[in-house]
Amino acid sequence: MQRVVVTGGAGFIGTYVACKLREHGIETIALDRSGEGADLLRADIRDRDTMRRILQPADAVIHLAVTSNPTTSELDRIRDIEENLVGTLELLDACVDRGVGRFVLSSSGGTVYGIPQTTPIPETHATNPISSHGAMKLAIEKYVQVYGAQFGLSHVILRCANAYGPGQTGALGQGIIGRAILTGLRDETLEIWGDGTAVRDFACVEDVAEAFLLATTTVTAEGVVNIGSGKGTSVNEIIELLNRTTGRPLRVRYTAPRYLDVPASVLDITKASTVLNWRPVTALEDGIERCYAWARSHIHQQAT
Amino acid sequence: MQRVVVTGGAGFIGTYVACKLREHGIETIALDRSGEGADLLRADIRDRDTMRRILQPADAVIHLAVTSNPTTSELDRIRDIEENLVGTLELLDACVDRGVGRFVLSSSGGTVYGIPQTTPIPETHATNPISSHGAMKLAIEKYVQVYGAQFGLSHVILRCANAYGPGQTGALGQGIIGRAILTGLRDETLEIWGDGTAVRDFACVEDVAEAFLLATTTVTAEGVVNIGSGKGTSVNEIIELLNRTTGRPLRVRYTAPRYLDVPASVLDITKASTVLNWRPVTALEDGIERCYAWARSHIHQQAT
Questions:
Q1: pTM surpassing 0.90?
Q2: Confidence of residue B1 (pLDDT cuts 50, 70, 90)
Q3: Which whole-number Å values give the CA distances from A155 to A73, A100, B183, B256, in the listed order?
Q4: In CA terms, which of A120, A264, A304, B221 is 20 to 30 Å from B65?
C-alpha cells in the first residue's frame, strides 16, 4: 500500500487515521471539505474533477467523510441522502474510473443494526435501523457492496462503535465522553437523553485508527467487520468513571429519551480479531483519563 | 379501509391492484405521473402540495411507483436514488403529515436478497444486493421501517417475485414471459441473457394484486412479506411451456449473462400464508396461456 486517500481527514477519527498511516510510512492524502493545512487538502467528494485528479495514483481510499450525525440526519433526511449517499456514489464512480484497488468504508455500528436481538451483536445480525442516520449508512454499505460485485472493487466496511478519545470536544453534540468532560470543565450541567441506563460500546479512537490501518493493508480482508470494545458500558457508568478521574462529581440532568436511540448497542468483535488480527488495547478507564488530561490542557484555555 | 391511494396506478401491477381494490368496494385513487384517465389521476409523488391534497383523507397508501428497472437503475444510479428513494421519503413525509394510517410498499424480492444462501429464500435471509436496483429498493424498505419506528406508521413491505400476466407487453425490456410472447408473435428472435438456466420465481399478477389487497386490509399484518409462487422455473423452462402453448417453437439467441443478475431467486412464501392468509392460485401453465390469449387479441393488431 503506497498511497492512500482519506476522506473526512480533518474529522475526529480521520485525523487519527491519517496520522497512523503516516507513522507506518504510507503516503497519505487527507481530504476534507472544511479545511486546508500542511497535511490536509480541501476537497469535496462530490467535486468530480478534483476527486479524479486526486485519486489518479491512489491504491486505496478510506472513506470517513460524513456531513451528518444521528441528530442532524433526522432534521433533513433528503439532504442527508444527497450529501452522503449520493456523495459516496460519486466517490465510488471516481474510484472505479481511476482504478483504486481498495475501498475502506466507515459505517455506524451503533445505528445500522437497530434494536439488537442478541448481545453482543455479530456482523450477521439483521440490519433494521430505527434512525435515518442508520438507514443512510446502511444504504451506503449496500452500494459499496454493489460496486464490489459489479466492478470488483475490493472493500472492507468497518461498523464502528462509539469512538472517543483526546481531541473529541463534544462540541457538535456527539461523543458523550468528550461532552461530559467539557461540561465539567465549564462547571455546567450535563444533559443526558433518557435515564442514563442506555448501554453503548466505547472504542478508543487510537484503537479505531489501528483498525482502519489494518483494514487498508490486510489485502485478504473483505466485507463487513465490527470495530468496538466488545463490552457494554452505560452512560451512568461513564459518568461514574469520569467522576473518579476528576475527583468532582458532574452535575447531570436527565431529559426525555430520543426515539431514534436504541436501548443498547454492544458489538461482537470476534471477526475483527480473525480477519484483521485487530484487538482493542485501551482500557476505558485509561482512555477516559487521557481524554481528561487532553481536555484540561486544551479546552480550559479556550473557554472564555 | 375506506379510501386507498395507489401510486404507480397506471403500471402493470398498479392497474391490477386498483382494479382489485375497486372490486372489493374500496374507494381507490390511482395516481401515475405518466397518465390521466377516468380512473387515474396524473400526479408525481415528489409534488408536495398535490400529494398533501390527495392524501388528506386517505386511510392507506400502496406505493408501487418506480421510475427504474434493474437495467436502467445501473445506467444512472444517482438519478435512480433521487427519483425513487428521495421520492419515497417525500411521499412518507406527506403520509405522516396527513395521518395516513397504513403504508404498503412494493419491494423487489428478486433483487434485495442478492445471491441466495438458501432456497427458497425466507424474509430473514441476509440482504446483500448485487444490483443498484436492489440496493435502492432495500434503502426504501429501511426508510419505511424508520418511519414506522419513529412515527408509528403501520406498514407492510411486499417483496414481490417476477410478476407476469395479461397486459405485460415486455416492451420496456422487463418480464421475460411478456417479452417472449411478443417476440414470437412478431416472428422475431428472443435474446436471453445467459444460457437460460437462471431460475426465477414467477407470480401471476392477479395473485400479486390479491396480496396487495390483503396487505392493505389485514391490519394485524406488519413488516416484510415475500410474495411469489414459492417455485423456481428456469428461463428455458418458460420457453418450453410457451412453445407448448403456442405450438410453434420460439427462436432464441443466448447472449452474455448480465453481471447484475443473480443465478437463482425463489422466494419462501410461508409467511404470506400465515400473516396475510395469502396463497398463489394460478398455475404457471394457465397463466402463460392467459398471457398468450391476451397478447394475440391485443398486440397482434398493434404490430405494424
A1: yes
A2: low
A3: 25, 11, 42, 26
A4: B221
Number of domains observed in the structure of chain B: 1
Residues B75, B239: Cα–Cα separation, whole Å: 28
Most confident range (mean pLDDT) of A39-48, A51-60, B94-103, B294-303 is B94-103
Peptide bond into B120 cis (omega under 30): yes
Residue in B112, B105, B110 with CA at minimum distance from that of residue B138? B112
Q: What's B50's domain CATH number?
A: 3.40.50.720
CA A36 to chain centre: 21
pLDDT digits (tens, 9 = 90+) for B28-77: 999 998 877 778 999 999 999 999 999 987 899 999 999 999 999 999 99
pLDDT tens per residue across span A131-154: 999 999 999 999 999 999 999 999
Q: By the 8 A CB rule, do B234 and B197 touch?
A: yes
* Distance from C-alpha of B46 to C-alpha of B65, rounded to nearest angstrom: 11
Q: Between chains, do B146 and A132 touch, taking CB under 8 Å as contact?
A: yes
Q: Would you tell me which residues 42-81 of chain B have a C-beta closer than 8 angstroms to some C-beta of chain A?
A: 74, 77-78, 81
Taking the C-alpha atoms of residue B105 and residue B107, their distance in angstroms, rounded to an integer, is 6
Give the mean pLDDT of A206-229. 97
Per-residue model confidence (pLDDT) at position A172? 67
d(CA A87, CA A107): 15
Taking the C-alpha atoms of residue A209 and residue A267, their distance in angstroms, rounded to an integer, is 17
Considering only residues 139 to 158 of chain B, which have any Cβ-Cβ distance to chain A shorter than 8 Å? Answer: 139, 142-143, 145-146, 149-150
Q: Look up residue A28 and give its DSSP letter.
A: E
**Helices A205-217 and A12-23 sit at what angle, rounded to 10 degrees?**
60
- Helical pair B284-302 and B176-185, crossing angle rounded to 10 deg: 50
pLDDT at A153: 96
C-alpha cell at position A90? 460519486
Per DSSP, the three-state class of B223 is strand
Asked whether this complex has an ipTM greater than 0.90, the answer is yes
pLDDT at A86: 97
Q: In a mutagenesis test of the A interface, which of B77, B92, B124 is the best target, namely the one with the most A β-carbons within 10 Å?
A: B77
d(Cα A295, Cα A298) in Å, to the nearest integer? 5
Per-residue DSSP letter, A25: T
For residue A113, the 8-state DSSP code is S
